[in-house]
Design a protein that fits this description.
By secondary structure, this protein is of the alpha/beta class. It contains 14 helices and 23 strands. It is 37% helix and 20% strand. The structure holds nicotinamide-adenine-dinucleotide. Nicotinamide-adenine-dinucleotide (NAD) binds next to helix 7 and helix 8. GO terms for molecular function: aldehyde dehydrogenase (NAD+) activity.
Length: 511
């Protein structure tokens, strides 16, 4: 594995210190504030970046609006060809970009590579899509009329993304939005700005090689950009990935100007462990779901709802498995659990444990903050397990950390009610070899989540399916299936090729 300055050099971003980019053009208002990016792996500062000013924002939006006039008429399969080349460039940079993701965000190296692989996969998906984007045709009630619908691009799509998937979420949005004929403005998380700069540099190089105008893919760094986007009528679609708390603000502002938003917010995901489950498989699914990415996935397993007959046995297996977890540097592939993103996240973890204890949680694996040479960033915590009741306030919330709650059930109906009995609705799963149980869980009376799995955990998803969740998770869908429709406007067209003007519903209007 390369060291971080080699990685930054290979990615071509060592000398870039910009607040914004409209493609090959990188810029910043002189004297603007800066933001330091620290690695949670070792606490070291990686680099400083500049923060975009209101003026930088205007520059970007104007460039994007101009570029849209070109890009919307550039044929969709040709747009797909650019996205195909972007996928190729990602293949070339997979190792360096994956390493940067791992070092700046703190997820394991394998997961860093996995994120870049997801970017490549969504590019492949979008290339195929660029020759589809189908509308329907339907029969007109009027003679000699033809009726059909078609899909047009919307304009500027703003992408506001979270720290925990610092590159993949942007690419899900960008690859689809671009083949649909939109231009993109990305505001990455201020906790992972270098990942943003690296991705923008890769796509900008591809666009330049193809002599595309500036403004097709744009980047803006800094939190203040969020509010500018929320309130800007020139941005018809805001795709927001982040917490429910911020999502509520974004959604209200965008709706108040009749803009559209795609909201991908917090989850509170549960696995039901039936007495008919394959317990060995269930243990792996549950432990990976709870501690993978140090519990910082929107699909992380937060709750296990376990049948009373196997509750004690399963709990004991879990405790044993947690005893074997290796916590440490995520770039060392022997470790299972890396750090949380920053000290504020560690504080939230500690607060959740204290609050849980006050509410009556019984910790069967205790948590705690790790210290010493291997943990100098102060961001490493112990994954923990607590027996709780579903109604506890802390259990109803998403704590973005490796805290796993155990809840006992008697009947499947009760288990489904517990699984659904939280404000969020992202990912859910049942582990069972009983067909009736599995089908009940997937039925209209089953899980109320956007993702419902059988015999795999809650964590992770393939790009081929539409990704997103219900209730306070926001209702948005990204990635596969027909999620592309969220990035386009639908138009119904009726064409009269008769000699008379016939009104719909046989209305007569004689002059
Ligand atoms: P966050 O809500 O703190 O930040 C998300 C983004 O919003 C960041 O880029 C941030 O700078 C920006 N932001 C902050 N204030 C804003 C404002 N007023 N207007 C517009 N943007 C603003 O989230 P986070 O801590 O980075 O990420 C963790 C959260 O994201 C978790 O809740 C997780 O479940 C969620 N998430 C959801 C999905 C999903 O697909 N459902 C995927 C990944 C993460």
């Amino acid at each position: 594995m390369n060291n971080i300055s080699t990685v930054l050099k290979n990615l071509g971003i060592l000398k870039l210190n910009p607040a914004f980019s409209t493609g090959s053009n990188w810029g910043a208002t002189s004297g603007a504030k800066t933001l330091d990016s620290f690695s949670p792996v070792d606490g070291k500062k990686i680099a400083s970046v500049q923060l975009a000013t209101d003026e930088d924002y205007e520059t970007v939006i104007k460039k994007a609006a101009d570029a849209f006039l070109f890009w919307r008429n550039f044929p969709a399969p040709k747009r797909g060809e650019i996205v195909r080349q972007f996928g190729e460039a990602l293949r070339m940079h997979k190792e360096d970009l994956g390493t940067l993701v791992s070092y700046e965000m703190g997820k394991s190296l394998q997961e860093g590579f996995g994120e870049v692989q997801e970017m490549i996969d969504i590019c492949d998906f979008a290339v195929g899509l660029s020759r589809q984007l189908y509308g329907l045709t339907m029969h007109s009630e009027r003679p000699n009329h033809r009726m059909y619908e078609q899909w047009h691009p919307m304009g500027i799509v703003a992408i506001i993304s979270a720290f925990n998937f610092p590159v993949a979420v942007w690419s899900w949005n960008t690859a689809l939005a671009l083949v649909c004929g939109n231009v993109c403005v990305w505001k990455p998380s201020s906790k992972t700005p270098l990942c943003g700069i690296a991705c923008q540099h890769i796509i900008a190089t591809v666009l330049k090689k193809n002599n595309m105008p500036e403004g097709i893919s744009n980047l803006l760094i800094g939190n203040s950009v969020g509010n500018l986007i929320n309130n800007d009528k020139r941005v018809p679609l805001v795709s927001f990935t982040g917490s429910t708390r911020i999502g509520r603000v974004v959604s209200a502002s965008v709706a108040s100007r009749f803009g559209r938003s795609i909201l991908e917010l917090g989850g509170n995901n549960a696995i039901i462990i039936s007495k008919d489950a394959d317990l060995e498989m269930s243990i792996i699914g549950a432990v990976f779901g709870a501690v993978g990415t140090a519990g910082q996935r929107c699909t992380s397993t937060r709750r296990l709802i376990i049948h009373e007959d196997i509750y004690e046995a399963f709990k004991n297996k879990l405790v044993k498995a947690y005893g074997q977890l290796r916590i440490g540097d995520p770039l060392d592939q022997h470790n299972h659990v890396g750090p949380l993103i920053d000290i504020a996240a560690v504080e939230m973890y500690s607060h959740a444990i204290d609050k849980g204890k006050k509410e009556g949680a019984n910790f069967v694996v205790e948590g705690g903050i790790l210290s010493g040479d291997a943990y100098q960033s102060g961001c490493y915590v112990k994954p923990c397990i607590a027996e709780v009741e579903n109604h506890y306030e802390i259990v109803q919330e998403e704590t973005f950390a490796p805290i796993l709650y155990l809840i006992k059930y008697k009947t499947l109906a009760e288990a489904i009610a517990l699984q659904n009995g939280v404000p969020q609705g992202l990912s859910s799963a049942i582990m069972t070899l009983n067909l009736r149980e599995a089908e009940q869980f997937l039925s209209a009376a089953g899980s109320d989540c956007g993702i419902a799995n059988v015999n795999i955990g809650t964590s992770g998803a393939e790009i081929g399916g539409a990704f997103g969740g219900e209730k306070e998770t926001g209702g948005g869908r990204e990635s596969g299936s027909d999620a592309w429709k969220g990035y386009m406007r639908r138009q119904t067209n009726t064409i009269n090729y008769s000699n008379t003007l016939t009104l719909a519903q046989a209305v007569k209007f004689d002059l």
